[in-house]
Amino acid sequence: MTHTYSITGMTCKSCVAKVKSSLLKLGDITEADVQLASPQATISMQNHIKLAALQAAISKAGNYTITETEHRTVNDAPIDSDVSWLATYKPILLIFAFIIGITLLTEVTHGTFFIERWMTNFMAGFFLVFAFFKLLDLKGFASSYSTYDIIAKRWQGWGYVYAFLELGLGLAYLTRFYPLLTNGVSFAVMAISLMGVVQSVINRRQIKCACLGAVFNLPMSTITIVEDGLMIVMSGIMLITML
């Protein structure tokens, strides 16, 4: 169901970002298109949320007031409900295929397959590519990430830090910078990230996954769990071999 509301008190894009982030933190909201020009917000939700609850949410972000602009509800089909699983996750599947292919070719040039070297190169590619997509729209990523990550929910700035942390980890793996420290940080960061993902999947929250930033509209699912889990397993294996 979708409702349109009028919001007063917003004066800049930063206000829009704050209001949108606050709305998306409400569990039943799946999409929130907040406009500065009107100013208004078109909100899609699984279950109807009372105006008072919406007001309470945006009041935490600033001195904003939300009012209804229409009294009818439009029942919408789920976003991309007619799109196949393969089409939905095509971007992330292609990215993984490219990274796996390139890193395997790198091993071929060495003449022998060394699993630890391959995992190091794979993780370098993973973090660099995923950081790239996050940095294309850093503000959009931080806003989306704050809807489910356990740290970003409390401090949205963590989303900005996280994107550059991924970039740093990618460069660290690529240059073999202090492998023990690099793998330790990767293990901790991905484990923390996984907590929020698992909570969202268990609660069946229909929200956007921010793993590829704000570029692709990927839904949160077990694919995200596998993605984070794979990085945890790889960094964990390399940590064990070093200790």
Structural summary, described in words:
- With 243 residues, this protein is of the alpha+beta class.
- The protein folds into 2 domains: 2-68, Alpha-Beta Plaits (2-Layer Sandwich); 85-242, no CATH class.
- It is built from 9 helices and 4 strands, in the order E-H-E-E-H-E-H-H-H-H-H-H-H.
- It has helices spanning 13-24, 51-59, 85-88, 90-110, 115-136, 138-145, 157-175, 179-202, 222-242, and strands at residues 2-8, 29-35, 40-45, 65-68.
- Helix 1 runs parallel beside helix 6 (138-145) and helix 8 runs antiparallel to helix 9 (222-242).
- The longest helix is centred in the last third of the chain and has 24 residues, at 179-202.
- The radius of gyration is 20 Å and the shape is elongated.
- Residues 70-81 have low confidence and may be disordered.
Q: Tally the structural domains.
A: 2
User: Roughly how many Å is the radius of gyration?
Assistant: 20 Å
Indicate the low-confidence ranges by residue numbers. 70-81
Structural class: alpha+beta
**Helix content range:** 55-70%
Label the overall shape. Answer: elongated
Total E-strand runs = 4
First CA to last CA: what distance? Answer: 53 Å
Largest sheet: 4 strands, antiparallel
Strand order of the largest sheet: 2-3-1-4
The H-and-E topology, N to C, reads as EHEEHEHHHHHHH
Strand content: 5-15%
| Helix run count | 9
- Mean pLDDT across every amino acid position: 85
